[in-house]
Amino acid sequence: MALLQIAEPEAASGPREPRRAVGIDLGTTNSLVATVCDGVPRALPDEEGRVLLPSIVRYLPGGGVQVGYEAQAHQGDDPKNTIASVKRLMGRGLKDVARSGNAPYDFVDAPGMVQLRTVAGVKSPVEVSAEILRVLRLRAERALGGPLAGAVVTVPAYFDDAQRQATRDAARLAGLEVLRLLNEPTAAAVAYGLENAAEGVYAVFDLGGGTFDFSVLRLARGVFEVLATAGDAALGGDDFDLRIARWALAQAGLGEPAAKDARRLVLAARAAKERLAQQDETPLVCELADGRRLERVLSRATFERLTADLVDRTLAPVARALRDAGLSPADVKGVVMVGGATRMRHVQRAVAEFFGRAPLNDLDPDQVVALGAAMQANVLAGNRPAGEDWLLLDVIPLSLGIETMGGLVERIIPRNSAIPTARAQEFTTFKDGQTAMSIHVVQGERELVADCRSLARFELRGIPPMPAGAARVRVTFQVDADGLLSVSAREKSSGVEASVAVKPSYGLTESDIERMLRDSVEHAREDAQARALAEARVEGERLAAAVRAAIAADGALLAADERAELERLLAHLDAALPGADTAAIRRAADALNRASEPFAARRMDAAVRRALAGRSLADLDV
Amino acid sequence: MSNHFELFGLAPKYALDAEALERAWRAVQASVHPDRYAAAGAAERRAALAWSARANEAYRMLKDPVERARHLLELAGVDPRFETDTAMPEAFLERQLELREALAEARAARDAARLAQLREEVLAAARAREAAIAERIDVARDYAGAAALVRELQFLRRLAQEIDDAHAPE
Ligand SMILES: Nc1ncnc2c1ncn2[C@@H]1O[C@H](COP(=O)(O)OP(=O)(O)O)[C@@H](O)[C@H]1O
Ligand SMILES: [Mg+2]
User: Fold this and answer.
1) Which of A44, A50, A49 is nearest to A25 (CA)?
2) Same domain membership, residue A453 and residue A320
3) A384 contacts in chain B (CB < 8 Å)
């Protein structure tokens, strides 16, 4: 079967400048930005030619901020204000963070997400991440010569809703238009698959600094289909460093070190770990704050013994993803290794043993995710002609459910369901005359609510009093292509409704973000009004072009009066666009959007009919 | 109610050609996936999200042997009463109890080989139910008879899931 090709919405407008779109890998350890130039993806360097930006942010007294190498240099002497591995804190509460232990920061318990006390005030992990993203945005704007149309930002496939939401918020805060949140292993598969014209079942094994992801995909004729994903959102190279540090302390007979020493020791441990990828043994040297010197020799054999259980921990999710996909290790044609921590010899060996074949190491594990994200951004921005693009079909990593009687979870969307997806389930009241129902949304695989992540609670009120069990409350979950959830509930007989974008218990509210955007120094400097006008114009032009292309392609689906109405609203928008009245442009665009809704739905129906008609009669199974 | 088979242009039957379903699903997603409309107006983006979600949900239901049967029973106007009508043949329930005990023992003993063997047994029993359901629905049109088998199949699938979870304690 040939894939059906449909005209891109803007195809009718002829050749045009490509829109500036980038892919960003916001890593635990390192971040980078890439773009597609003349069809070739490449990472964008800083002014000194360095591509990687260490994901480290240092807050200075008086409001200054250092990001990257500059901040990295101060990890050892200013640990409380120098935030590293902030990705591990995204969407996490104080409880989760305390459990993983030993970060040297001053944590502040806040509703939803943990915060950090620094010399520049209390910062949320979202704000810290936004500093990193802002540096990358500015780097890209300088390289590409103007504001970006949008960015694809990658997240670990195993990130839950709260962590994805936090990442999206950080990007918005950094002034980025997010085209898509893309799962890191999926991005790597795109880069690998297109580079090597790979077809068949492939797996991506991504062990970074703080997260582990494993995804199984089927690559076939321009479609990347994720069959299953699994991972551990709190396992990475950092954990190996800590093991070495603890070993060194025990060897030297030292107890718990102060924050500065702890950080220095971990840095020394990390360097030693990285050297062991090449050497059989290596010195571990650390100057302590009191002038003493800690000096040991670490052999690869000892290192592998100290960390064998961490490597084993990666294999459980691997086995589970394969089982969920209904595959055995032998079905996998190749395992693409991603993430700096896959350079460790015993990780390579474990993967080779498990799959009975040597893993694929031919891509730069530091860059492959960003390059794949850039390629996807290029497609989403509409820079590739129809027929030369591809389709990504991804899944949700963790089951979604709601709390029922007795603290049990009723699963509504099982893990590894293809996204986007929507599913409704009916519930009823427990008591006679019950007029409100509280709905608690959770994510995870365990049976007890207490063992799953709480995403949101909301209430459906105003249910008419009825005997127990008579009300019919329909709860609808919708997960979009970014993997983000929204939930609504409706009582059928009365029509009472309630809905939430799942944000309250973890993440920032819309007004938090607006306030932060206003507060951010950079935005105060920019002319906010001019920016709003420019954005409204770009949006308006894009919409007008899309509607015109739709009419040109599928005008037959419109009645004469409907067509006339769209033409009238288009003319109205055209008239508003050159003006300086932002609100007028937005109003005209909104009106056109609303009026074109039935047309859009009909076009979609027609596209599906064409897609199915394009298949042979045998396929239709009649 | 919406007919998931129709959505993919497939004839409604239990013995579904999995490859034909997958091809149809991919063809539909190729035309409605939100990535295809990332540069379009808000109305089209919303329509694409709704359509794509619907197609994925229909695909998931049709792939799942229990959900597919439920859907066919619903289309035939039969209420399968999964939740309330729990009367099941004594022999079946006894066998289930035995299997569960065996699972608990194997789990306690961390006996991977025994777990794998149990899994095979349960899956074989599930496959037998699926074949029987296909015969009841597609050939005999005996929906009440099918409903009883579907309930058994659901039991077996849950058990298989538990065995899988026992393999990988989290
Ligand atoms: N040669 C090496 N040997 C072992 N580990 C390495 C090596 N190079 C990098 N790493 C580790 O890889 C991790 C960072 O990987 P990266 O893919 O950049 O992470 P992230 O995606 O989390 O930003 C760190 O823990 C780092 O120590
Ligand atoms: Mg990474």
Assistant:
1) A44
2) no
3) none
User: What are B159's two structure tokens?
Assistant: 């058990």
Q: What are phi and psi of A461, to 5 degrees?
A: -110, 165
In a domain, A13, yes or no: no
What pTM did the predictor assign? Answer: 0.87
The predicted structure's pLDDT at residue B81:
62
Residue A102 is assigned to a structural domain of this protein: yes
Q: Residue A9: its pLDDT value, please? A: 44
Which uninterrupted H or E stretch holds A198? Answer: none
∠ CA A483-A488-A491 to the nearest 5 degrees?
155
Residue appearing with tokens 């399968």:
B80
pLDDT value of residue A11: 41
In a domain, B83, yes or no: no
* Under-50 pLDDT residues of chain A: 1-15, 504-506, 521, 525, 616-622
- Chain A nearest-CA residue for B166: A320
Residue A6, in any domain of the structure: no
Determine the pLDDT at residue B85: 58
CB pair distance less than 8 Å for A418 and B59: yes
Q: CA dist A162 to A423, A436, A507, A611, Å?
A: 20, 26, 6, 36
> From the CA of B83, how many Å to the nearest CA of chain A?
12
The token duo for A402 is 């709601």
Identify which of B11, B48, B60 has the shortest CB distance to residue A418: B60
Task: Give the domain extent around B117.
Answer: 90-167
Q: What is the CA radius of gyration of chain B?
A: 19
Tens place of pLDDT per residue across chain B (170 aa): 589 999 999 999 999 999 999 999 999 999 999 998 888 888 889 999 999 999 999 999 999 999 999 999 999 988 766 545 556 778 888 888 888 888 888 888 888 888 889 999 999 999 999 999 999 999 999 988 898 899 889 889 988 888 887 765 44
CATH of the domain at A556: 1.20.1270.10
What atom in ligand 1 is closest to the CA of residue A270?
A: 27
Phi/psi of residue A294, nearest 5 degrees: -105, 125
State whether B161 and B94 are in the same domain. yes
CATH of the domain at A24: 3.30.420.40
The answer as to whether A157 is a domain residue is yes
At A273 the three-state DSSP class reads helix
Determine the residue of A273, A282, A366 to mutate for testing ligand 1's pocket, defined as the one with the most ligand atoms within 8 A of the Cβ atom: A273
- Whether residue B15 is contained in a domain is answered as yes
Contacts of A603 (CB under 8 A, 6+ apart): A550, A553, A554, A557, B44, B47
Number of other residues whose CB lies within 10 A of the CB of residue B106 = 20
Does one domain contain both A534 and A513? no
Residue-by-residue DSSP string for A522-551 = HHHHS-HHHHHHHHHHHHHHHHHHHHHHHH
Interface of B with A in 48-67 (CB under 8 A): 48-57, 59-60
| Domain of residue A208, residue span | 195-362
3-state DSSP assignment of residue A335? strand
Catalytic residues of A: 25, 87, 184, 206
B positions 86-145 inside 8 Å of A (CB): none
b (16+ CB within 10 A) / e for A284-313: bebebeeeeebebebebebbbeebeebbee
Count the Cβ atoms, other than its own, within 10 Å of residue A318: 24
| A201 and A186 co-located in one domain | no
Which residues have C-beta atoms less than 6 Å from ligand 1? Answer: A 27-30, 208-210, 236-238, 270, 273-274, 277, 339-341, 343-344, 366
Distance of residue A204 Cα from the nearest chain B Cα, in angstroms: 20
What pLDDT, on the 0 to 100 scale, is given for residue A416?
A: 93
Same domain, B94 and B147: yes
Residues A563 and A510 in one domain: no
Q: Count Cβ–Cβ pairs < 8 Å, chain A vs chain B.
A: 157
